[in-house]
Amino acid sequence: MENLPITLFDTLRYLLVFWIGSYFWKKREFISILLSTFRRDIWLLYVLYGKILLSWIGRKRRNETLFRSIDKIVKEDGGEQVCFYFGDEKWSHKQIQEMSFRVANYFQGIGLKKGDAVGLAMTNRPEHAAIWLGLGRIGVVSVLINTNLRNESLEKCVSVVECKAFIIGSELREAFAEIWSNGKGKQLLPSDIYELDRFMEDPKWVPETVKTQIGSFTTIDFAQCLLKTSKGATVVSPDQEPTFLDPIMYIFTSGTTGVPKAVRCSHGRLFFLASTASVINFSSRDVCYNPAPMYHAGGLLAVVWAFCFRAPAVLVVKFSATNFWKDVHRYKVTVCMYIGEFCRFIQNQPEKPELEKGHTLRAMFGGGGLRPEVWMAFQERFNVKQFVDIYASTEGNCTLINLEGKIGPCGYIPVWFQPVHPIQLVKTDPVTGEVLRDHKTGFAVRCENGEPGELIGKIVDSVPMARFDGYTDPVATEQKILRNAFVQGDKYFRSGDCVTRDKYGYYYFQDRIGDTFRWKSENVATTLVEAVISRITGLRNNTVYGVKVPGTEGSPCMAAILDSSDSELDLEALTNGMKMSLPKYAMPMFIRLISIQKGLDMTGTYKFQKFRLREDGFNILSIKDPVYIYSTVTESYRRMDLDKYTEVMRGNYRF
C-alpha cells in the first residue's frame, strides 16, 4: 500500500492534538486538584447558595424581622417551650415576647421613635435579649456596650453614638458612676439612665429594690418601670414599622484603625449570620451553649438561633472552663459556640473521664483562628464529631467556611472560582499595611499561593454575603473601602486580616494588619492603649503592638516606652493607672524601656515604626533594652530574666 501524502489538514490536526496534549500536560496539577476537590466544592456551593442565600432571600421577601420570628413561634404553638436556660431558670419564648412588649410599650410611651438609639450595657442574661428585641419592635436601635470597658475606654464607646437613654445592669453601676463623676460623663451620657438587676415574667416574682444613686450619679429602676407597663402587643404606625434591612443594633468593633466603631447590624444581617447554622443541620432538637458575651456577634448567634430555629440557648454570665462539661451534661448540650481561646481553656483542664465521655455534644461552631494543635487535641480527647470553623466579622463581607472540618484552614474557595470570586487576596506593604498596586495598571496586585496578603471582599448591596452596611462614622466607613481595586469604579471591603492560601484553595489566618490585634478573643486598639500610657507617664513617647508567644492564640499587648533622661518611669503608678483605665485584655503583657539616646524609630510621615519592634518582640537574648513582664496573679510587672523568658517560650507562663 503506497504511503499517502500528508495534507495540510492532517498537519493542522496533528498540531491541534499536540497543542491540546501539551496544554493539559501543563495543567495536569490544576486538573488533579480540580478532580480531587470536586465533591468538596459542590457541597460548598450547595450550602452557600442552596441553603444560606435562598433562606436569606425568603426572609427578605417576607420582610421578616427578629421580633416577628418570635411572635410566629408564640402564635403557632403557644411559645411555652424553652428559649433560654440560665442557671436554674427556664425562659420560654412567651416570656421573652411579653418582656419585649413591655420594653417596646414603655419607650414608645416616653416618645422614642424609629431611628433613635438606646445604649445597653449588661452582662449575659435573658433580659439582655428581651430588651434589644423590644426596642427593635419600635425601630429603636440598641447600642451594645462591651461590659469590660472602664473609664477612658468606656467614655470613647458611649461617645460614638448619641443615645436617647441608657440601660445598664446593676453590676455596671460603678463603672458608669466613674465616668459620670469625672465631668465628661455628664456630657456624654443621656439624662435617663435605667438600671436593671433582674426581671421575670412571673406573677410570684418580686424585684429587689435597686440602689439608684452613687454620689451625683442617679439611675431609674427599670424593673419598676416595666412592671407598670402593659405586656400587650405593641402597636406601631406603618411609617414607624421596622423592616428587614433596618438596623436593630450597633455592635462595637476596634477595626484596623484602632478607633472604636459602631457597626450597623440589621435584621437581615443577623438572619444571614444565623443561616450559617444550616452547615451543621441545626434544628429545634438541638441545645446550643453560648459562653461568649452577648455584646459580641459570637454571643448573639445562639440567641438569634433560639428565635429562628426554636432551639434553646444556654446562657452563662461568664465562661468557666471548670464548669463547662457539667453544663453540657446538665442541659444536654448538642452544639457549642466558640471564639478565640475557648477550646484551649477547656483542653488545659485536668482530665475528668466521668464528664468528658458519654456527653451529647456533637458539634463545635465558631471561629477566631483556632490553632491546629488545639483543634486536633480537643477533637481526639473529647470525641466531638464535627468542628465548623468560620471566618467572618460583624460588619465584613469576607465570609469563609471550613465545611470539611479540615484542621488548620479557616475556609476555602474552589480553585476554578478564585479568579472571579468576590473575595480576593491582595499584597500589602508589611510596614504601612497599604495595599500594593501595579505600577503600570494602578490596580491591586493579587497574591500567589503561599504569599501572605490582606483578604478583601467585593461590595455588592443586593447580595447579603457581599453587603457592607458600614459604621455610624462615615470617615471610618470610607477607610474600610478599597476603591478601584481591579477595575475603575469597583469597591472592596478591607478585612484588615493577613491571610495565606494554598494550592487547594484553603485559606489560613495569619494575623491582624495595622494597629489592631486580637488577644483574649477581643480586638486591642493600640491607639487607645497608647493614649492611656501617654497620659499616665506625662506624655512620654510610646508605641503599642502585638507580639507572638508560643502556645497562645492571638497576640498579647507589648508597649515600647521612651525612657526619658529627666525622670525615671514610675512603673507602679503606670500599672495602677492602666488597670484603672484599660480592660484586662488590653493590659500590656510586656513593657520595653527604650533609651532616649536610641529613641523610637519613625516613618517619613512621623509615625512610630512598629515593624522592627514586632520582630524584636520580648527576646532579651537579642535586645539590650530592659523588658518587663506582667503577672496576672500579682497584677504587677517584674524585670524579665532568662528563667522567665524560657518559661514564656516553652508556653508555661500564665497570661
TrEMBL record:
Give the matching InterPro entries.
AMP-bd_C_sf, AMP-binding_CS, AMP-dep_synth/lig_dom, ANL_N_sf
Q: Which reaction does it catalyse?
A: tetracosanoate + ATP + CoA = tetracosanoyl-CoA + AMP + diphosphate; a very long-chain fatty acid + ATP + CoA = a very long-chain fatty acyl-CoA + AMP + diphosphate
Listed A to Z, the keywords are: ATP-binding, Ligase, Nucleotide-binding
Name the Pfam families on file: AMP-binding
Domain spans labelled AMP-dependent synthetase/ligase: 80-442
PROSITE patterns associated with the record: AMP_BINDING
Is Mitochondrion among the key words of this record? Answer: no
Highest taxon in the source lineage: Eukaryota
Question: In which family does this protein belong, per the annotation?
Answer: Belongs to the ATP-dependent AMP-binding enzyme family.
Protein name, UniProt field: Long-chain-fatty-acid--CoA ligase
Question: From which organism does this entry originate?
Answer: Orchesella dallaii
